[in-house]
């Protein structure tokens, strides 16, 4: 027969309210009573149900995870995979479980992220996106539900966000190219509607201007952060005479695509064209040549997102934003042009 909270209370000689307080770690119960109840729970194999916890604490201990973007958007980019894994690990340490929301189901429904969050009574929400804020995300951001955004600038009263300092990302790349003797530099950016892509593009233009380098408008191309778009953009650059000496691909996957296009053209990296990527995914160490890139500290971003979100849930902090420092990782796709 299944043991209930009522049975535990009867066997311990206490009220159900006292058992509930012990389950939810309230501190106004004597240690003697606490240990007595916990021993009975262990001996009977009793495990508190989700509803028993949530009804008492008024919390579900659930965190919604949303990939904000167009239909069929998913977490398959290595950067987001690593961030979510770090977030999952750290939010678990803090006592929460994750609930992943699918945006496909909203195509033929009046539901949205906010209605789903209310339905499941989530305590908070992690929102990941490289795109501008869509209406359904803005509605969630402006709600009473605490939200943390990764690569998406949330502005709500109970929201915060964090991202790598994207101006510094581009500044470090341009500086690295400049010090190695490269003067004719192209950019393969992300999608025009991506806030992150636009920040990196603005940072690139600003850094080029600071070093007095010529900005070629036809060398400022857009991809979508994935390999095929980097391949196509590089093929367009190679059609131009002269083509650039160096290319900053604003994601490692696009950099891999660019390297493939360069090799297909019978050219060599870095002897003919130098390449720098961004993210420092694991594959950078195994490409040929190994990819010079900007490291985004994905472990740190995921951990900070978890702790910031829990602090927002408990009203320990107000709406805030954090910029994470990028790091240049030098490998084999850049060589010195200075003789």
General description of the model:
The protein folds into three domains: 53 residues, 434 Repressor (Amino-terminal Domain), CATH 1.10.260; 128 residues, Rossmann fold, CATH 3.40.50.2300; 131 residues, 3-Layer(aba) Sandwich (Rossmann fold). Helix 1 crosses helix 3. The longest helix has 16 residues. The protein has twelve helices and twelve strands. By secondary structure, the protein is of the alpha/beta class. Strands 2-1-3-4-5-11 form a six-stranded parallel sheet, with helices on both faces. It has a six-stranded mixed sheet with strand order 7-6-8-9-10-12, with helices on both faces. This is LacI family transcriptional regulator. Keywords: DNA-binding, Transcription, Transcription regulation. One of its GO terms (molecular function) is DNA-binding transcription factor activity.
């Amino acid at each position: 027969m299944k043991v209930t909270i009522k049975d535990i209370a009867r066997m311990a000689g206490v009220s159900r309210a006292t058992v509930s307080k012990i389950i939810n770690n309230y501190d106004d119960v004597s240690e003697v009573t606490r240990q007595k109840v916990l021993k009975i729970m262990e001996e009977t194999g009793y495990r508190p149900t989700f509803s028993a916890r949530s009804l008492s604490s008024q919390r579900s201990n659930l965190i919604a995870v949303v990939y904000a973007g167009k239909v069929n958007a998913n977490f398959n980019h290595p950067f987001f995979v690593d961030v979510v894994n770090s977030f999952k690990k750290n939010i678990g340490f803090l006592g929460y479980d994750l609930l992943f929301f699918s945006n496909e189901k909203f195509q033929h429904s009046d539901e949205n992220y906010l209605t789903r969050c209310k339905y499941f009574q989530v305590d908070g929400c992690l929102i990941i996106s490289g795109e501008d804020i869509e209406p359904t995300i803005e509605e969630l951001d402006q709600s009473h539900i605490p939200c943390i955004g990764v690569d998406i600038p949330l502005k709500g009263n109970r929201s915060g966000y964090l991202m790598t300092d994207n101006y510094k990302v581009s500044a470090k790349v341009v500086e690295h190219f400049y010090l190695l003797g490269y003067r004719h530099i192209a950019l393969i950016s992300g999608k025009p509607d991506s806030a992150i892509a636009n920040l990196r593009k603005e940072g690139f233009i600003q850094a080029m201007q600071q070093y007095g380098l010529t900005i070629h408008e036809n060398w400022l191309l857009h991809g979508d952060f994935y390999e095929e778009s980097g391949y196509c953009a590089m093929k367009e650059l190679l059609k131009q005479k002269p083509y650039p000496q160096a290319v900053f691909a604003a994601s490692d996957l696009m950099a891999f695509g660019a390297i493939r296009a360069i090799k297909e053209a019978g050219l060599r990296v870095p002897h003919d064209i130098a390449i720098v990527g961004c993210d420092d995914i694991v594959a950078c160490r195994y490409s040929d040549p190994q990819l010079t890139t900007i490291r985004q500290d994905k472990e740190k971003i995921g951990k900070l997102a978890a702790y910031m979100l829990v602090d927002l849930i408990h009203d320990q902090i107000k709406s805030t934003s954090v910029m994470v420092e990028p790091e240049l990782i030098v490998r084999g796709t850049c060589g010195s042009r200075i003789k």
